[in-house]
Each structure stands twice: as C-alpha cells, then as structure tokens.
Amino acid sequence: MSGRSLHTSLARSWHRLAFRWRRAQFYRELAEELEFHSQLKAAENRRAGMSPESALALSRKQMGNITIAKEECRDMWSFMRLERLWQDLHHAARMFARTPVFTAVAILSLALGIGGNAAMFSLVNTLLIRPLPYSRPESLYRITGTYPRAAIPFLQQRSRSLDIAAVSTASEMNLTRNGLAIRIVGSRISPNFLSVLGASVAKGRSLKPGEDLPGRDGLAIISHSLWKERLGSDPAILDRVIALDGVNREIVGIMPAGFSYPSAKVQIWIPMRLDPSNLLEYWAGGFVPVIGRLRPGATVNKAREEIRNSVAQFRKTFPYPMARDWNANVTAISLQQDIVGDLRSKLIILLSSVGMVLLIACANVAGLLLSRAAARRKEIALRGALGAGRLRILRQLLTESVALALVGAGIGIILGMSALSIFKSVLPPFTPGLAEASIDWHVAAAVTVIAVLAGLAFGLAPALSAQQTDLTETIKAGSPRSVGSAWTQFRSLLITGEIALTLVLVVSAGLLLRSLYRLSEANPGFNPAGILTVEISPDQFSCTQRAACVALYDRLLARVRNISGVADAAIVNSVPLDGQLPTIPLDIEGHPKSADYPSPMLWFGAVTPDYLRIMHIPLLAGREFTSADGPNSAGVVLISASTAKHFWPGENPIGKHLKLAGAKLWRTVIGVVGDVDHNSLTNPLPSWIQGAVYMPYGQSACEDGQIPAAMTLLVRPNLDNAWLRTEIRQIAEDQAPNVPVGRVRPLQDIVSASIADFRSTMRVFITFAGAALLLAAIGIYGLLSYWVTQRTYEIGLRIAIGATRRQIVALILHQGMRITMYGVGIGLFGALILTRFLRSLLYGVGATDVNTYAEVAALILGVALAAAAVPAWRAARIDPAKSLRVE
Amino acid sequence: MGALPKTSELLPGTLDLLILRALLPGPMHGYGIASRLKQVSDDVLQVGESSLYPALQRLLLNGWVKAEWGTSENNRRARYYKLTASGRKQLATERENFSRMIGAIQKVLDMA
Question: Do the Cβ atoms of A282 and A148 come closer than 8 Å?
C-alpha cells in the first residue's frame, strides 16, 4: 500500500470513527455480500455440472477462511491499538471495582507517596534546579562576606571581570504619605543593582549612575505588592513623593510582580548613599553583601583572584584598625548557591524521605498485587487457554498496575497541592522564589513518568508470577495452594524492606519529636508567659533630640500603666527571638584593640528599668537599673553572664568599664544578668556576636551615637483580653501620632514563631512516618492474610490432628514477627547510617539516641503484632471439617 | 495492515491496483470483480474471496472506492463498488509506480 497522502489518512480516521456507530450494519452487510458471492460461486459450480450440495460445499471451500477475512476486515476498521488499550482499561476497571477495598488501599498508598513527591519536586525544581528568575543567572555571583559602603566604589573600579553592586539585607523602614504610616521592609542598593541582576522595572525607570550621591539619592523603587496593596495601584504614583524614615523620596519605578531580591519581603529599594564625608556611615555603619555579574569573556577563576587581591588592598585603607584576616578567604559563589545555602541539605533530606514513602507504597502495592495475582491465577490460565498470548496477558496486567498508579498520581497531585504549603512552611518564608513554587506541568509530567515507572515496577513481579502456571493444572484444581513459593518469598522480602524503610522514617520523626520537646522545655533565659508586645517605630530622625524620644516613651509607659489590669510595662529596642539582632561595636577595658583584635560586636538592649523584672531575667550580681540612671547621670550597663565570663574570666566584672567603639564616654558595669536566647532557641547568639549588654533607655546609643527610636512596648496584664489589646494600641497611636504601631502580639507567639519551621519539619516527618507505619501495617496484614488463605487446608489439617488454637495463633504470629524482626534489624542498621544527615535539624538529642531507637523498634514490633493478630485470629477459627472438605 | 493474500502470487499492493483498474469502466460487485480479473487474465489471476473482500474494505477505508447497494443482473441485492475521485488519482499513481517497477524488473532480467 503505497502513496498514503494526508488526505487518505484523514479519510481513514474519519471512516473509522464513522464505523463505530454503524458496527452492526457493517457486519450485516459484509455477511450479506459474502453470502451473495458464495451463491453466485455455487451457481457457477453447478453450471460446471456439480450437484447443488457439493457445489455449495466447494464454493465455501474455494472462498477460503471467511472468518479470518471477516476478522481482518473488522480489525481494519478499528483503531486497533486504542481499542485493545481501551479493552484492557475496561477490564482493569471491572477487576478493580470488584475489589473496592484493595483498590482504595492501593490507590491511597500510591497517592500518598506520589503526592508527597509531587510537592517536593516542585520545591526542588523551583529552588535547586530551575535557574534564578533573573536574566542569564549563570553569570551571577555573590562575593562572600560583607563590606562597608567605602568598599563598593573601590571594588567596582578595580574589578575587570565583574560588574559589582551592593544590596543591603532587608531592614524595616517607616513609610508615611498623606496620613498613611506603615512599617515596611526595604533594602539599600547600588544604582546599577538592577542591571547587574538583569532585572528591570515594570513601570517607570531604574536608578541612574550617580544617583547614590548625597543630594541626588532621594529616590525609591517600590515592589508590585506595595504598590498594589498599600498605594492602591495608583498609576500616578510615579514621580510622587513619599517619606521614608522621615526622608522624602520620589518613587521612580515599580518592579514587576514576583520580583524578589534579596528577600521576598523587601517592598522598597532605595539608593545606598555614598558619602565619604560621613565617616561613620561610609566606613562602619551596616556592612552590606555584594553581588556581581561576570562580564562577557571573563572567567570565574580570574574574577575570584581579582576580588581576593582587591579586598586585600581595601583592607589596608580602613581608617580604623581592621582584623588582618578580615575577609581574607573571600571568593565568589554562584548566586543560586548563596540563596539556597543550607536549604539544599534540608530539601535533599525531605526529598529522600518522600522517596522512601513512595518506595514503601510501591512495595506495598506490589505485595497486594502479588496476592491478587495468585487469586486470579485461574482467570489468567483460562484466558491463556482461550488463546490470549503471553505478551497480551502481561500487557493486560501491566495496564492494570499502570492504571492504578496513574489514578494514584491524579489523586496524589491534588494531595500534593495541599502538601506543598506544608512543605513550604518548613523553609524560611522569604526565600526568593519560594512563593512561586507550584505544581506546574513540569512537575505533573515528572510525576506522571514516575507513576508509569512505579506502575511497571510494582506490576511486573505480580504479572510474571501470574503467568507462571501450568495451564491445565491450575484450571483443574483451581486451588490457591498451587502457588510458587518463590513469589511468596519475594513478597516477604518486599515487606521486610518496607519495615526497614519505615523504621528509618519513624526514627527520624522520633528524633525530631524529641528535639522539639527539648526545645519547648529549653529555658530561653526569660519567661514569655503572659506578656503582650507592640512595636512602635517613630522615624529615627525624630529622635535626633534624645529628650524627645525619652519623653515619648515615658508618657507612653505612664499612660499604659494607668490602664486598669496592667501590672507592669516596659520598653525595649528588640525582644528576644523577634528576628532582629541589634548590635554595637564596643571598646572593652583591658582589651586594647589591634589588627588581630578589633572591636567586638555585642548584642545590645536599650531597656527601661522594669524590663528585666517583666521578662523574669535574673539578676546574678550587682544591681539593676533604676529610674535614677537617666540621660544625664553616669553611664551604666548590665552584661550577661557569658559576656562577663568571656571578657573577664575569673574576675569580678562589676566596676569594669566599656564604651561604644570610638566614643569618649566610658560606661560602668553595674550588674550581671542571666543569658537570654536572642537569636534562636538552638543558637542563642551567632558566633560573630561576642556577648550581650543592656543600657538604660535614656543613656542608650546605637552605633551612630543616636538613641534607638523604634521600640517594643512590653505589657504584663493581669488578664489578657481583646479590649485590653485595643486599649494598648489606641494609647500607643495617641501618644505617637503618624507613627507606625504594630499589632499587639503575645511574646509567647514570637517565641513559637521562632521555631515554626522546626515544628513544620517535625510535622512533615511525623506525617511521613505515620504514612509509612500505616502502609507497613497493611503490608504485614496483607501478607499474613494471604498466607493464611493459602494454607487453609494445612491449618485445617493441623487442627484436625490436634493442634490447639493457641499453637495456630503462635504459628501465624511467628511468621509475621520473623519478617518484622528482619525488617527492624535492617532498619536499625540503616537508621544508624542515615540519621546522621539529620544532625543539623536536631536539638539536644544525638542522631543515634538509644532511647528513640528502642522506642521506635518497640512501636514497630507492636504495630506489626497488631497487624498480624487479625489473620492469626482468623486462622485459629478455621473449621477443619470445612477446610478439608473444600479441597 | 492488510496481510498479503496467501493464495495469490501477486506483488504486494498489486491486488489493490488490479481492483481499482477493474472498476475503471464502471461500478461492479465483488463477484463481478473476481470473475472479471479471472476472465481478462485467462484464468491466471484467481483472486480468493478471503483476500478480495479485505482488499475491498481497505479501499473503502482509504476512501478510494464507494459502495452502494444495487440490484444485480439476476435481480438480487448486491453491493456495488465505484471508483471515487481520489481512487482515480490513486490508480494513476499506482499505475505509474507499477510500470516503473515492471520496467526496472525487466531491465534486471534483460541484463547481459
């Protein structure tokens, strides 16, 4: 058949389609036509002188095998492959409908496994695989370390290989405009930041070179969300002026929706002013991260060498002594690596865990299918006898398992959509790109491929086992006893593996659960119970007059204390665990600065005298602040116990002196207080912060010598209620008009939020472990039920010859527990090897914690015992008379 | 698609060509086609019905012929096959291909 034009192909498809509605007519007509033919043929033979009967017989003979011809015709008119697939699917659906429990269990286990994978894939795809959403992201680099503003022009001028821009980490700012006063998050950038990143504004313009110089830097670029949510999507907002921390800035551009750098919470980007005459800001205030884009033709190795040399030269230009090893091993790492950072290991741990759940689900379904295959032996043997080829049967069985997997995948994708939000909560919420992670067609395609592979994988063994039969024997006996023991053994192996994987997951969940318990038991150094907080953030410049701010907060405290039901109130610049770490460089008495020993950075708290009492932070030595420690009295500080130990080991720190780096006024240590977890419950202070120091609010000073303006009000009410919260907020707004006032939040919430991602991680693992445990239980139950059914005859016989029910139960339980023990043994070994990767997620518990391992092993043995008990009980109730007669 | 007629010793695809050619003068029923081929070829081409009818179905499927029920010479209902426009075109192409093939075979047989 040559020359099949497009026209012909279309005609064929159309005719085939039309055929589907006229099938009966087709057969009738074909039969009539053939009959007509055979009669004419018979007439011809009669003319040749044959008897009518033999003429007809001969004509039929001459016509050849008409049945085959008819079949050939019919096949020609059908979409053969599709038709067969449809038949197989139809059959599969019928088979599955006949065993609803089996089907539901199989589909749900697969959906669980596949859903988790779908959600994890979309995270891994977004964060690890998909290139960053900036132009030519492969040439984007992050220069390690942070640098003062002075370094920016220095590095920009010297680098041949990289276009360099600085972008400060997100910090809070006040935005005021026409009575609107809100606290937003902003970042300071070099004017070339957007061109280096390869992003552009959606509306308006980007910053121009030189727009970071004093007097020209009164500009801002806003995020799409800020424009939409807080500025009413006003298209005329461009060129309008807003006040940011009291400084007027003109909005020149709006970023497109979805753009996020350096963090998804940044809502505004403003020029990072370069003013060499402002020594403090230019050389010390807030070191910033630096990114770079590799220029065309440059190599990253060259760039790294260049940057190392430039930084070494720059180190010598500091106007104050700088540590000799400051950023000595600076290098350039890919921006993606910088953004993902230590998320990578967490993602990989989660991905392996969902992978394990899927493996368990597959093993389980394979086990279930194996016993079904055994039950369907007779049907399959019959199909074989009726002429179905081996391949045809194999295809039928594999179609069934793949269909099962695909239905599982469908439900799994829906499950995955909800799982995704849970998985996302495991990661830091403002990771750029995290919000965009979704189950898109990439993920759906990957999941479908996995489902098909899984379907083939768990379907192959059962399909092969189903065919391994002697046709006549099976049909004759129809007995479920005639089953290859090799396949039963294979199934036991699957269950053993399943139990081992389950144990690994449950141990992981157990370790995390124990860590969370330790964390909740951990003493953060203060008592958050019953404390309400509210942030009040006046513009920094409104505190240029120190007295103004002191008076503001004095008034506020006086008014709040007047509310009936308020026992105590205080203010502090930052409450522990709120994600902020105010620090200042200090000069410490007896610790002269040198190139090897620059000013240490300390966490610093500006507090009113009642703060320590409200927070239940213990005074260990010396005295507390009093209201007499005001702006005009002698400078005093409190230090934490570990700070005392760090700087004055074995000495009495009281009476020692310290001062702000570069300042004149020495302050006296008047007391030592307990250590507090400022940074996180697992890591009280990052390693670059060498201690904690408290100052009375009136005397306090940030790096630039100014008194902190944005403060948090702490209130300890006798009774917390909505009215009280509204009242507190109202007073704050009254006392500080046109100043952003935050929500009233219990301090307890802030503490919980600080371990939210830890808690989600644990919840995810508990879910995995629970799913795995359930699947394993189903696996053991299924295997033993099958085993019992298979051995009904044998068990009946045993009972008949005198075995007690107890012995029968013991027999079945023994069978189940043996497999479980193997699984637990292998699993313990596996867990010992694998849980070390969890170490970074654990707190207060070792990766090989004996108690956890023992408890989990006991738990799994218990679950296995319960799962085995049902079939054992059923076996014990076998009526020997019946079972022996049946066979 | 369309297994080779086992009894005939025709070249692949030739049967389709022959049927199309037989239908060129006008519509014919299956038996008529078979007898016509047999008669014209001096009993050399005996087309078995088990290959004739699948071939006709194939031509129908491809839209090269149309089938209509009519009355036969002995006043019985019979299915008549008729060339369609695309069938004519197909015949022309097939014919050309066939001649080329025959010519090529001839050349090979005639080689020195």
Answer: yes
Q: How many structural domains are present in chain A?
A: 4
The mean pLDDT of chain A is: 85
| Cα separation, A712 vs A567, whole angstroms | 17
CA-closest candidate to residue A769, choices A513, A468, A592, A470: A513
pLDDT (tens digit per residue) in A590-620: 887 766 667 788 999 999 999 999 999 999 9
Same domain for A241 and A195: yes
Q: Is residue A701 part of a domain?
A: yes
Whether the pLDDT of residue B8 is over 50: the answer is no
Shortest Cα–Cα distance, B112 to chain A (Å) = 31
Q: What is the spatial distance between Cα B63 and Cα B83, in angstroms, rounded to a whole number? A: 9
- Domain contains A50: yes
B28-29 vs B77-83, strand pairing mode: antiparallel
d(CA A405, CA A362): 9
Tell me if A16 and B61 make a contact (CB, 8 A cut-off).
Answer: yes
Chain A residues with at least one Cβ partner in B under 8 Å: 1-4, 7-8, 11-12, 15-16, 29-30, 32-34, 36-38, 40-41, 62-66, 68-69, 72-73, 76-77
Q: Answer for the pair A600, A588: CB distance below 8 angstroms, yes or no.
A: yes
Domain annotation covers residue A529 = no
Q: Does B50 touch chain A (CB under 8 A)?
A: yes
Distance from the Cα of B23 to chain A's closest Cα (Å) equals: 17
Task: Give the tokens for residue A136.
Answer: 């030519």
The domain total for chain B is 1
Nearest-CA distance B41 → chain A (Å)? 18
Question: Is A779 a domain residue?
Answer: yes
pLDDT value of position A470:
56
Residue-range definition of the domain harbouring residue A20: 6-78
- Looking at A718-804, list the stretches that DSSP marks H as alpha helix, in order from N- to C-terminal side: 722-735, 747-754, 756-790, 792-800
In a domain, B4, yes or no: no
> What six digits make up the tokens of A134?
């900036």
Asked if residue A187 lies in contact with residue A430, where contact means CB atoms within 8 angstroms, the answer is no
Domain boundary among the residues A78, A112, A134 is at: A78
Residue B29 belongs to domain spanning: 14-110
Cα separation of A782 and A262, whole Å? 52
Distance from CA of B111 to the nearest CA of A (A): 28
DSSP state of A591: B
- Per-residue tokens: B36: 């016509």
Task: Dump pLDDT digits (tens) for A379-390.
Answer: 777 777 777 777
The one-letter code for the residue type at A496 is: T
In a domain, B87, yes or no: yes
Question: In terms of domains, do A770 and A855 share one?
Answer: yes
Residue A826's pLDDT is: 94
User: Residue written as tokens 């396949």?
Assistant: A487
Q: Which residue type is seen at B93?
A: T
Q: Enumerate the residues of chain B whose CB falls inside 8 A of the CB of residue A41.
A: 31, 49
Is residue A540 pLDDT above 70, yes or no? yes
Decide the pairing of beta strands A140-147 and A332-334. Answer: antiparallel
CB contact (8 A) between residue B50 and residue A69: yes
Q: In the predicted model, is pLDDT for residue A669 greater than 90?
A: yes
CB atoms within 10 A of CB B58: 22
In this prediction, residue B11 carries a pLDDT of 64
Q: Are A661 and A564 in a shared domain?
A: yes
- Residue where a domain stops, chosen among A713, A739, A765: A739
pLDDT at A347: 85
CATH number for the domain that contains residue B87: 1.10.10.10
What average pLDDT does the segment A391-417 reach?
A: 86
User: Tokens for A799?
Assistant: 């009972």
B103 and chain A: CB distance < 8 Å anywhere?
Answer: no
pLDDT of A544: 81
d(Cα A79, Cα A20) in Å, to the nearest integer? 10
Residues of B in contact with A25 (CB under 8 A): none
A750 vs A745: CA distance, rounded Å: 7
